[in-house]
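This follows on from our talk about sequence and fold. Please put the record directly below this note.
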Amino acid sequence: MNSKHVVTIAGFAEEVGQDISSRHRFGFDEGRESAYEAGRVAGRQSAIHALTAARFGLETADHVVEATRSMSYEPEPIVGIGNAGRIGICVLTCSTAEEFLARVREVKEEEAKRDRELRTLFSG
C-alpha cells in the first residue's frame, strides 16, 4: 500500500467519523429515551399492582395490571391526571374489588372513547 491510499483512507475516516459518531449518539439517545419510557410504564404498573394488592388482593391486582397493560398513562394536558392517577384514586375510593374492577373498566372505556374522538377530529 502506498502512502496516497493511507492518507485517503485516513481522510475518509476523519470526514465520516463525525457523521458516524453523530448517528451513533442519536441512536444511543433514542434507545435511552425508549428505555426510560419503558421504565416509567413499568413503574406505574408496579405501583398500581402494589396498591391494588394491598387493598383488594393479588388476584385483583394481577387482573387490573393485565387489563390496563395497553392503556396510556400520560397525564392529559387539560385535567392534568392520567389513567394511572385515575386508577390510584379508584383504589382509594372503591369499597370492594368488584366495584374497583368496574371503575377500572370505565376508565379504560373513557380512554377508548377519547381516542376515537381524537382520531375523528384529526382524520376529518
